[in-house]
Amino acid sequence: MTEEDIEKENAAITKAYKELLKVSYTTLTDDDKKLIRKAFEVALDGHKNQRRKSGEAYIFHPIAVAKIVAQEIGLDATSIASALLHDVVEDSPDYEIEDIERLFGKTVATIVAGLTKISSLSKEQDMDVSLQAENFRKMLLTLNDDVRVIIIKIADRLHNMQTMDSMRTDKQEKIASETLYIYAPLAHRIGLYNIKTQLEDLGLKYTEPDVYYDILHKIKESKEEQDLYIAQFSDVIKRTLDREELNYTIKGRPKSIFSIRRKMIKQGVTFDEVYDKFAIRIIYKSDAANEKFLAWKIYSIVTDHFRPNPIRLRDWISSPKTTGYEALHITVMGPKGRWVEVQIRSERMDEIAEKGYAAHYKYKQVGEKEDSLEDWINKLQEALENPETNAVDFVEQFKLNLYSKEIFVFTPAGELKSLPKGATPIDFAFSIHTEVGMKTRGAKVNGKLVPLSYELKSGDQVSILTSETAKPTANWLDYATTARSRSKIKSALREDKKRIGEDGKELLKRKLKQLKITLNEASVNELVNYFKLKTSLDLFYRVGIGTIDNAMLKDFAASRSNTLMNFIKSKISRKPTHHVTKEELEKEEVTSNYDLLVFGKEEEKLDYKLSSCCNPIPGDDVFGFLTVSEGIKVHKKNCPNALSLQSNYAYRIMPAKWIDSSQQEFLATIVITGIDHIGLVNDVTKIISENMHVNMKSISFESHDGIFSGKINVIVKNNTLLKKLLEKLRKINGIDKVTRV
């Protein structure tokens, strides 16, 4: 570079820095400016020899990130300084975290350390999905250090997305996909709607450039017509608003390219057929006391002039979203017979909608109850620290909770609870308290008993019926939708398996003793191999539920004595067998023997082929794809072709999962006939309910001239358990016949 170029660049750097100070959303004191100046000087020194892929000096990147943090998110001087320093420790050998703490204090050092930690995670090349998910989970754990870590990281990602043009195409696609997968949902959840929109649009620009530029071009073409329409709409209501002496502004806001694209796909329409390509926003000035009253006053003025769509009213003023978002949304029939979304919000609400977290804190009153973001971080922390959760499941579940629309339901005492759309009474129970969830026996919605699979709706009043003897069952996982309830149920089921495993171990000890075999490491190892299992606890669990019964153990003992002589003869030439260690024996997990693949909600057994592109193995998360010529082909959920198959051929996708055939539950119908007497029905139900591993689904009895017949539907894990039940029922006094249909 020539001297003249260097001078020009230095002038541009100084200009960028001055702009940063000008655009800050919060008022900067002299001390704040000194802190930012010092951070700028350290960043300038730390990045002095670095250039970006585009060739420009690296320092422009931290300044741009700090500018987003200051202007678009509106964070404080500490955050602006941290944003300027976010890459210094990682990129410069001259600075360590200790230096940052010495120069800027503990808070800045904590934030920079968190950002450095995240950067080193994402540097790993060609990560598989599970590793990426695990890293994302670790990244979220830094929320506990300081929520500003994540916010600055989102700003960093936004600037990287804005300046990706000089990168290789494959790198652009990777970063853009990750942005759509992780960062856009996260920005949405923290309430950074503007940034979320930019991230989504930029994500689309690099993942589907043709689509992006096509919609962008069409939006530009129709802008004039849109402005004219907004002016027409505004003219109609302005006179009335002015007569009421309201202080307001009316703006038109175009929908993002990404959301227009989503609508086109979801509704199967063209760009011209998307009717609400923009929304009209009425922003009014108000003091805190009249804010709500004025919102409804404006609502009534708008609906006096334009007919509202009654099912499209969204009142987020009475019940703000968990992100802190407040507004009234109405869809009205505007001029020329077109539906228009009208958003009514005060200046304070508008600022919270634009700036999210930062504005929330600006308006937070002293003594106000816990902020929803803090509440969310606490809930998130609980989910993150659950070591049992598989990382990919966690990310999927987390994203589900991030993007889900909210419903609001009432507790019996009239308290309002927010839950994701699609939530069930099980989710509600766990949101009240873990203990309530664990002891759930049933639920009432608006005073009526409902199944636990019932989908709650906004406005429902939910009351949970509990019982000391109730406990989670595997079926609950089919009903639970929130990350919290699912992780708690899974932990409880594991505990239950462990308990059955412990009982099974004692039972096995007694049974082996009768067969003259001692229960020790060697015999357990032999049994595990004989029954083709994975761990010792797997063996104990199966003995506990009766899948491995006396007859099977006798067969084992017989095969053992037959092979004993051969074993002695070949001992010299054989490799030593692997003996189960004490640690393995006491391992606290019962692994499942996933040996059976089932399809659809009904869990049917169908013919299938395993696809060669991802070679799924038992236990993998999979789905079935109905091919034209080869029947069902099974792919892993993280197969490289999964995304394109799921988005282009959604109608051919079949849910599939590996299950443990020994733990599958089956419906069996038992028919009983006999001589009727008082207490007979009680005897029958008592025997069924005492049987730990049998679940009664339905029961019906008829009595006719002293003869009675009954039909019982039960759910059992296997034939052995059913046979035992039939034997016990036959022994009841008065029973003549017990048959399985």
Automatic annotation (TrEMBL):
Superkingdom field: Bacteria
PROSITE patterns hit by this protein: ACT, TGS
Positions of the ACT domain: 669-741
Domain called TGS: residue spans: 405-466
Stored InterPro entries: ACT-like_dom_sf (IPR045865), ACT_dom (IPR002912), Beta-grasp_dom_sf (IPR012675), HD/PDEase_dom (IPR003607), NT_sf (IPR043519), RelA/Spo_fam (IPR004811), RelA/SpoT_AH_RIS (IPR045600), RelA_SpoT (IPR007685)
Pfam families with a match to the protein in the record: ACT_4, HD_4, RelA_AH_RIS, RelA_SpoT, TGS
Cleaved signal peptide residues: none
Entries under PANTHER family matching the protein: GTP PYROPHOSPHOKINASE (PTHR21262:SF31), GUANOSINE-3',5'-BIS DIPHOSPHATE 3'-PYROPHOSPHOHYDROLASE (PTHR21262)
Known role: In eubacteria ppGpp (guanosine 3'-diphosphate 5'-diphosphate) is a mediator of the stringent response that coordinates a variety of cellular activities in response to changes in nutritional abundance.
NCBIfam families: spoT_relA (TIGR00691)
Family (UniProt): Belongs to the relA/spoT family.
Protein name as it appears in the record: RelA/SpoT family protein
Species of origin: Aestuariibaculum lutulentum
